[in-house]
Amino acid sequence: MRLSALTGAVCWLGLTISTGFAADAPKLTPAEEQAIASLKKLGGLVLEIAQNDPRLDISLHLADVKITDAEIAPLKDLPKTAQLNLRGTEVTDAGLVHIKDLKGLTKLHLEKTKITDAGLEQLKGLENLEYLNLYGTAVTDAGLKSLSGLKKLKKLYLWETQVTDAGVAAFKSDLPEVQIIRGLELAKPAEKKEEPKPEEKKDEPKAEEKKAEDKKEEKKD
After folding, report:
1. Is the pLDDT reported for residue 216 higher than 50?
2. CA distance 57 to 83
3. Domain for residue 153, yes or no?
4. Would the CA dihedral through 205, 207, 213, 218 be positive or negative?
5. Whole-Å CA distances, 128 to 83, 104, 133
6. What is the spatial distance between Cα 92 and Cα 112, in angstroms, rounded to a whole number?
7. What is the pLDDT of residue 212?
8. How high is the pLDDT of residue 26?
Protein backbone atom coordinates (compact mmCIF):
# COMPACT_ATOMS: atom_id res chain seq x y z
CA MET A 1 0.00 0.00 0.00
CA ARG A 2 2.80 2.34 0.90
CA LEU A 3 4.52 1.74 -2.47
CA SER A 4 1.27 2.29 -4.32
CA ALA A 5 0.60 5.52 -2.42
CA LEU A 6 4.15 6.74 -3.11
CA THR A 7 3.80 5.98 -6.83
CA GLY A 8 0.51 7.85 -6.97
CA ALA A 9 2.03 10.85 -5.22
CA VAL A 10 4.93 10.97 -7.70
CA CYS A 11 2.53 10.79 -10.67
CA TRP A 12 0.40 13.54 -9.18
CA LEU A 13 3.47 15.71 -8.60
CA GLY A 14 4.66 15.19 -12.19
CA LEU A 15 1.26 16.07 -13.56
CA THR A 16 1.11 19.17 -11.36
CA ILE A 17 4.55 20.36 -12.53
CA SER A 18 3.76 19.70 -16.18
CA THR A 19 0.39 21.47 -16.06
CA GLY A 20 2.01 24.23 -14.03
CA PHE A 21 4.48 24.90 -16.85
CA ALA A 22 1.64 24.91 -19.34
CA ALA A 23 -0.38 27.30 -17.19
CA ASP A 24 2.58 29.62 -16.64
CA ALA A 25 3.48 29.79 -20.35
CA PRO A 26 2.21 33.09 -21.78
CA LYS A 27 -0.44 32.72 -24.43
CA LEU A 28 0.33 33.85 -27.97
CA THR A 29 -1.39 36.95 -29.24
CA PRO A 30 -3.44 36.69 -32.46
CA ALA A 31 -0.66 38.61 -34.27
CA GLU A 32 1.95 36.11 -33.04
CA GLU A 33 -0.17 33.13 -34.04
CA GLN A 34 -0.67 34.56 -37.52
CA ALA A 35 3.04 35.36 -37.91
CA ILE A 36 4.06 31.82 -36.89
CA ALA A 37 1.52 30.32 -39.27
CA SER A 38 2.87 32.47 -42.13
CA LEU A 39 6.47 31.39 -41.50
CA LYS A 40 5.54 27.73 -41.24
CA LYS A 41 3.61 27.98 -44.51
CA LEU A 42 6.87 29.02 -46.19
CA GLY A 43 8.55 25.90 -44.83
CA GLY A 44 10.21 27.71 -41.94
CA LEU A 45 10.88 26.09 -38.60
CA VAL A 46 9.46 27.80 -35.50
CA LEU A 47 10.15 26.14 -32.15
CA GLU A 48 10.18 27.07 -28.49
CA ILE A 49 13.71 26.93 -27.09
CA ALA A 50 12.65 24.59 -24.27
CA GLN A 51 9.56 23.26 -22.53
CA ASN A 52 9.89 25.89 -19.83
CA ASP A 53 11.30 28.60 -22.13
CA PRO A 54 8.73 30.13 -24.48
CA ARG A 55 11.32 32.12 -26.44
CA LEU A 56 11.45 31.20 -30.12
CA ASP A 57 14.11 29.61 -32.31
CA ILE A 58 13.25 30.41 -35.95
CA SER A 59 15.01 28.98 -39.01
CA LEU A 60 14.22 30.04 -42.58
CA HIS A 61 17.40 28.89 -44.31
CA LEU A 62 15.80 25.59 -45.36
CA ALA A 63 12.41 26.99 -46.37
CA ASP A 64 10.53 25.59 -49.35
CA VAL A 65 10.48 28.91 -51.22
CA LYS A 66 12.90 31.75 -51.88
CA ILE A 67 13.11 33.93 -48.79
CA THR A 68 13.25 37.65 -49.56
CA ASP A 69 12.54 40.81 -47.57
CA ALA A 70 8.80 40.33 -48.01
CA GLU A 71 8.81 36.81 -46.56
CA ILE A 72 10.48 37.83 -43.31
CA ALA A 73 7.98 40.62 -42.58
CA PRO A 74 6.06 38.45 -40.03
CA LEU A 75 9.14 38.45 -37.78
CA LYS A 76 8.33 41.94 -36.56
CA ASP A 77 5.32 40.46 -34.72
CA LEU A 78 7.40 37.88 -32.85
CA PRO A 79 9.18 39.75 -30.04
CA LYS A 80 9.94 36.49 -28.21
CA THR A 81 12.39 35.47 -30.96
CA ALA A 82 15.76 34.60 -29.39
CA GLN A 83 17.49 32.77 -32.25
CA LEU A 84 17.07 33.52 -35.96
CA ASN A 85 18.68 31.81 -38.93
CA LEU A 86 18.46 33.57 -42.31
CA ARG A 87 21.57 31.96 -43.79
CA GLY A 88 21.75 31.91 -47.59
CA THR A 89 18.48 33.77 -48.10
CA GLU A 90 17.86 36.72 -50.45
CA VAL A 91 17.34 39.13 -47.56
CA THR A 92 18.76 42.64 -48.17
CA ASP A 93 19.43 45.71 -46.05
CA ALA A 94 15.81 46.80 -46.43
CA GLY A 95 14.55 43.52 -44.97
CA LEU A 96 16.42 43.95 -41.70
CA VAL A 97 13.93 46.63 -40.67
CA HIS A 98 11.64 43.71 -39.74
CA ILE A 99 14.03 42.47 -37.03
CA LYS A 100 15.44 45.74 -35.68
CA ASP A 101 13.04 45.73 -32.70
CA LEU A 102 13.59 42.11 -31.62
CA LYS A 103 15.33 43.14 -28.40
CA GLY A 104 15.43 39.57 -27.08
CA LEU A 105 17.47 38.28 -30.03
CA THR A 106 20.66 36.56 -28.84
CA LYS A 107 21.77 34.67 -31.96
CA LEU A 108 21.55 35.85 -35.58
CA HIS A 109 22.71 34.09 -38.76
CA LEU A 110 23.07 36.43 -41.75
CA GLU A 111 25.83 34.62 -43.60
CA LYS A 112 25.62 34.51 -47.41
CA THR A 113 22.77 37.06 -47.48
CA LYS A 114 22.61 40.27 -49.55
CA ILE A 115 23.27 42.68 -46.70
CA THR A 116 25.86 45.48 -46.67
CA ASP A 117 27.03 48.13 -44.21
CA ALA A 118 23.68 49.91 -44.48
CA GLY A 119 21.91 46.83 -43.12
CA LEU A 120 24.08 46.72 -40.01
CA GLU A 121 22.58 50.06 -39.01
CA GLN A 122 19.35 48.16 -38.34
CA LEU A 123 21.08 45.91 -35.80
CA LYS A 124 22.24 48.68 -33.46
CA GLY A 125 19.32 48.17 -31.08
CA LEU A 126 19.74 44.41 -30.60
CA GLU A 127 21.15 44.92 -27.12
CA ASN A 128 21.10 41.24 -26.10
CA LEU A 129 22.81 39.89 -29.21
CA GLU A 130 25.63 37.49 -28.34
CA TYR A 131 26.31 35.77 -31.67
CA LEU A 132 26.36 37.33 -35.16
CA ASN A 133 27.44 35.59 -38.36
CA LEU A 134 28.23 37.84 -41.35
CA TYR A 135 30.31 35.32 -43.31
CA GLY A 136 30.27 35.87 -47.07
CA THR A 137 28.55 39.28 -47.00
CA ALA A 138 29.64 42.65 -48.42
CA VAL A 139 30.18 44.37 -45.06
CA THR A 140 33.29 46.53 -44.57
CA ASP A 141 35.17 48.29 -41.78
CA ALA A 142 32.64 51.13 -41.88
CA GLY A 143 29.76 48.76 -41.11
CA LEU A 144 31.42 47.41 -37.98
CA LYS A 145 31.08 50.82 -36.35
CA SER A 146 27.32 50.25 -36.19
CA LEU A 147 27.89 47.20 -33.98
CA SER A 148 30.22 48.81 -31.44
CA GLY A 149 27.36 49.38 -29.01
CA LEU A 150 26.40 45.68 -28.74
CA LYS A 151 27.99 45.17 -25.33
CA LYS A 152 26.85 41.53 -24.94
CA LEU A 153 28.31 40.37 -28.26
CA LYS A 154 30.63 37.39 -27.76
CA LYS A 155 31.18 35.92 -31.25
CA LEU A 156 31.37 37.70 -34.61
CA TYR A 157 32.03 35.82 -37.86
CA LEU A 158 33.66 37.92 -40.59
CA TRP A 159 35.15 35.30 -42.90
CA GLU A 160 35.09 36.30 -46.59
CA THR A 161 33.91 39.85 -45.94
CA GLN A 162 35.63 43.10 -46.91
CA VAL A 163 36.66 43.83 -43.33
CA THR A 164 40.39 44.53 -42.95
CA ASP A 165 42.88 44.01 -40.14
CA ALA A 166 42.61 47.72 -39.32
CA GLY A 167 38.83 47.45 -39.07
CA VAL A 168 39.06 44.49 -36.71
CA ALA A 169 41.59 46.29 -34.52
CA ALA A 170 39.33 49.34 -34.26
CA PHE A 171 36.32 47.20 -33.39
CA LYS A 172 38.27 45.28 -30.74
CA SER A 173 39.24 48.55 -29.12
CA ASP A 174 35.52 49.16 -28.47
CA LEU A 175 34.61 45.56 -27.60
CA PRO A 176 37.83 43.80 -26.52
CA GLU A 177 36.03 40.68 -25.25
CA VAL A 178 34.50 39.77 -28.62
CA GLN A 179 35.88 36.71 -30.38
CA ILE A 180 36.22 37.54 -34.08
CA ILE A 181 36.43 34.63 -36.49
CA ARG A 182 37.81 35.41 -39.94
CA GLY A 183 38.46 31.90 -41.20
CA LEU A 184 41.70 30.58 -42.60
CA GLU A 185 43.72 33.28 -44.30
CA LEU A 186 45.94 31.40 -46.73
CA ALA A 187 49.37 32.94 -46.98
CA LYS A 188 50.54 33.86 -50.47
CA PRO A 189 53.39 31.64 -51.69
CA ALA A 190 56.75 33.35 -51.49
CA GLU A 191 58.10 34.45 -54.84
CA LYS A 192 61.05 32.39 -55.96
CA LYS A 193 64.14 34.38 -56.70
CA GLU A 194 65.91 33.36 -59.86
CA GLU A 195 69.40 32.15 -59.12
CA PRO A 196 72.11 33.54 -61.40
CA LYS A 197 73.13 31.10 -64.10
CA PRO A 198 76.69 29.80 -63.79
CA GLU A 199 79.05 31.24 -66.36
CA GLU A 200 79.81 28.93 -69.21
CA LYS A 201 83.38 27.68 -69.13
CA LYS A 202 85.31 28.10 -72.30
CA ASP A 203 86.44 24.81 -73.83
CA GLU A 204 90.15 24.19 -73.43
CA PRO A 205 91.96 23.59 -76.74
CA LYS A 206 92.17 19.97 -77.72
CA ALA A 207 95.54 18.18 -77.46
CA GLU A 208 96.09 18.04 -81.26
CA GLU A 209 95.34 21.74 -81.69
CA LYS A 210 97.69 22.51 -78.85
CA LYS A 211 100.52 20.55 -80.55
CA ALA A 212 99.95 22.41 -83.81
CA GLU A 213 100.13 25.71 -82.00
CA ASP A 214 103.36 24.65 -80.30
CA LYS A 215 104.93 23.75 -83.67
CA LYS A 216 103.99 27.14 -85.11
CA GLU A 217 105.66 28.79 -82.18
CA GLU A 218 108.81 26.67 -82.69
CA LYS A 219 109.04 27.67 -86.39
CA LYS A 220 108.78 31.32 -85.47
CA ASP A 221 111.68 30.87 -83.12
Report:
1. yes
2. 5
3. yes
4. positive
5. 11, 6, 15
6. 11
7. 61
8. 74
Q: What is the pLDDT of residues 131-154, one digit of tens each?
A: 999 999 999 999 999 999 999 999
Q: Looking at beta carbons, which pairs linking 15-21 to residues 24 or more positions away fall under 8 Å?
A: 21/51, 21/52
**195, exposed or middle or buried, with CB in 10 Å at 0-12, 13-18, 19+?**
exposed
Range of the domain at 148: 41-92+99-184
Number of domains in the chain: 1
**∠ at Cα 110 (109, 113), nearest 5°?**
145
Strand segments, DSSP code E, in 19-161 are 45-50, 53-59, 81-85, 107-109, 131-133, 155-157
168 assigned to some structural domain: yes
Calpha distance 117→138 (Å, rounded): 7
pLDDT in tens, 171-211: 999 999 999 999 865 444 555 566 666 666 555 555 566 55
The enclosing domain of 167 has a CATH number of 3.80.10.10
- The answer to whether residue 212 sits within a structural domain is no
Residue 56 is assigned to a structural domain of this protein: yes
Supply the pLDDT for residue 188: 46
